[in-house]
Specification:
This protein has 115 residues and is mainly β. It has one domain (25-113): SH3 type barrels (Roll). It has one helix at 92-103, and strands at residues 25-28, 34-42, 55-60, 67-70, 75-79, 111-113.
Length: 115
């Protein structure tokens, strides 16, 4: 069942938020930039926060700007041709495990094969 409060997020009945792991490759839905999650940044004011109500993901985009901030609902998870989440420097078994966890949290439209 889709969670009415957060687009693209499954309603698992759990109250605790599970974050997307550092090193996971993502794409911003509107802006299109791609990069690897590099942690969380606490946001004092403004909209667009993660389900914890306090943070946004820090994305290393590898450009002169180096990092961008984005709320979870604005991110797509990039996968390889086998459908596994792309993660920097991680072995296939761990990527398979993380991909399973992410599929338990997000709807299928949040997973996009990397170009």
């Amino acid at each position: 069942m889709v969670n009415e409060g957060k687009p693209g997020r499954l309603d698992t009945g759990k109250k605790n938020w599970v974050r997307i792991p550092d090193g996971t490759k993502v794409r911003h839905r509107q802006e299109g930039h791609e990069g690897f999650i590099d942690g969380l940044t606490e946001i004092i004011t403004g909209p667009g926060r993660n389900p914890d109500g306090r943070t946004q993901y820090r994305i290393d985009v590898g450009s002169s700007e180096r990092r961008k901030l984005a709320a979870e609902e604005d991110l797509l998870i990039l996968t390889d041709h086998e459908g596994l989440a792309i993660m920097g420097k991680q072995k296939v078994d761990y990527r398979r495990h993380v991909t399973g966890q992410l599929h338990g949290m997000f709807t299928d439209d949040r997973f996009v094969e990397s170009l």
